Amino acid sequence: MSGLGRRAFVKMNGCGNAIVTLDLRGSGLSVSPAEARAIARAPGLAYDQLMVLHDPRTANTLAFMTIFNNDGSLSAACGNGTRCVAFVLSRETGAATLRLETAAGLLDCVRESEFVFTVDMGPPRLDWREIPLASPAPDTRSVALSGADLPDALRTFSAVNMGNPHAVYFISAAVDFDIHRWGPRVEHDAMFPEKVNVSFATIMSNDHIILRVWERGAGATLACGTAACATLVAAARAGLTARAATVALPGGDLSIEWRESDGHVLMSGPVELEFEGEFDPAIFAGVET
Hints:
By secondary structure, the chain is an alpha+beta fold. 16% of the residues lie in helices and 37% in strands. The N and C termini lie close together (7 Å).
């Protein structure tokens, strides 16, 4: 039987990116992929990412975060989810600055106002081995993707790792593009041994990008913080924008800056508290742990 029954959770969103936060610090408990899928299927709890808090592993951090996609797979980073966790822990501690940890490294968070947070997502990884790609790409600003079925718009992408791998496409009309058809096609391409998040971006001006995202393990989402960061980095590397821009997603706007002084990417945006509750043990009936 799952030990997660009656555990408290917080349901939130970051620019529409659906997030469930589960605090397991001090419990010794963990979440299995099957339990993560069961939570996503529970009435009212459908999420894009599940942020599970564990006891800190590194000094001066508040928690180590394990991040699940709604299919039970793991993600090393989630910018919108990190802002939601920062809200929960800032409310608990009263702290305006917080340090969290994921498999991708340390994340510093700053509370700008009650519901707006900035996360230092660290520097992007730009070498093809770090993305990772299945074959060498000397210039990850422009990588060829083969496939007779691919439209011309998807034959060249920019590769960026922001804690998880991203393929960024610059197209003329992201809002009209069929991401439900082409998102999974690119996500599962053999070029990406760990699958990939797929961004479809339209440059509106030097500081304004429209973005739609197909997330690996989650599908089409209203927002994706790491994708917004990866897209700004890709755009700036290509000379399409400045190093700071507003990235407009279906769920809202994120402010992204690729800081020149240290190469870190900063993401600022709002979070929304939807409701809090406890898991019904029945949702885990028959789930193997």
